[in-house]
Design brief:
CATH superfamily of the largest domain: MetI-like
CATH class of the largest domain: Mainly Alpha
Distance between the termini: 53 Å
Strand order of the largest sheet: 1-2
Order of helices and strands: HHEEHHHHHHHHHH
CATH architecture of the largest domain: Orthogonal Bundle
Number of domains: 2
Largest sheet: 2 strands, antiparallel
Length: 308
């Protein structure tokens, strides 16, 4: 066999090995993607099945319009609005803290901070995202609430204000990190053009960079708020378990996630209407977060800026 023939055979052998390796890798990655899809579908199926049992006993109109929530303790009532109200109060309250602070932090990191400073501040901020949420709950209970009580003595041990503050602090890293990534992707040519027209750094930051990165910034807002809606342990410890509709943030409330924790650790019998309410609340929460994430994807696709 000539040297050329041996070279051709070796090349063919290597090609076959590469093809088999590529096929194996392809199927491994496909399996991983399939697992995520099947897991999501399984979660939806479980929630829908449990909710179907619940809504056979409870009117869906009563569920979405009732203002009293007591599916376990008599007299029983099944209006989920108090839980939705508590969830929205915490979400909106945390947004008032996290969105402006996170955006301002992102502007500083992207436009003002030196590279060495950015290397220290950004990882430090992201450490906040790694702290267990139950630690945030204890922090709210032992530190934030006493501070609020000094200003407003009538504040209870469990209150919505402390929960909103601690959740706001918790989601600041998500807002600042994602927004800073979006701002950093804006080409320097846009900045230089604005500087050439005599704009100041503040004007460039607020009138050029932020509008150019708006789709990414808004997406970070929505993802952070989705995180706030689904927060569990921090609000369970800080906000309490009193389902009520009240405009006073110094009073105790209950979020949807806190109720799910309450039922999960209680001695409610499996199959009872109180237990099945867990699935109805879970499905409602899933629908809310899914809607926000779909809205985020639409915002990104609608207002996304692509730079060459």
């Amino acid at each position: 066999m000539s040297g050329a023939d041996r070279t051709v055979n070796i090349s063919n052998g290597n090609s076959e090995v590469n093809d088999r390796t590529s096929s194996i890798v392809k199927y491994v990655f496909f399996s991983c993607a399939l697992v995520t899809v099947l897991t999501t579908l399984a979660i939806i199926l479980v929630l829908v099945q449990g909710s179907f049992v619940f809504f056979r006993e409870v009117s869906i109109v009563e569920y979405f319009t009732g203002t009293d929530w007591s599916p376990v303790i008599r007299p029983r009532s099944y209006g989920v609005l108090p839980l939705i109200w508590g969830t929205l109060v915490i979400t909106l309250g945390s947004a008032l803290i996290a969105l402006p602070v996170g955006t301002a932090t992102a502007i500083y990191l992207s436009e003002y901070a030196d590279p060495d400073v950015r290397k220290v501040i950004k990882p430090t901020l992201e450490i906040l995202a790694g702290i267990p949420t139950i630690v945030y709950g204890f922090f709210a209970l032992s530190f934030i609430t006493p501070l609020i009580q000094r200003v407003f003595p009538e504040t209870g041990t469990f209150n919505a204000a402390a929960g909103a503050i601690v959740v706001g602090v918790m989601i600041i890293p998500m807002v600042s990190s994602l927004s800073e990534d979006a701002m950093s992707s804006v080409p320097d040519d846009l900045r230089n053009a604005a500087y050439g027209l005599g704009a100041t750094k503040f004007e460039v930051s607020t009138n050029v960079v932020v509008p150019s990165a708006l789709s990414g910034i808004i997406a970070s807002y929505i993802l952070a708020l989705s995180r706030a809606i689904g927060e569990t342990m921090a609000v369970t410890l800080a906000v309490g378990m009193s389902p009520q509709i009240t405009a006073n943030p110094l009073e105790s409330m209950q979020t949807m996630t806190a109720y799910m924790v309450q039922i999960g650790i209680s001695d409610v019998s499996i199959g009872s209407i109180g237990y099945q309410s867990l699935f109805a609340v879970g499905l409602t929460l899933f629908a809310m977060t899914l809607a926000m994430n779909l809205f985020s994807l639409w915002i990104k696709s609608r207002y996304r800026e692509e730079y060459q």
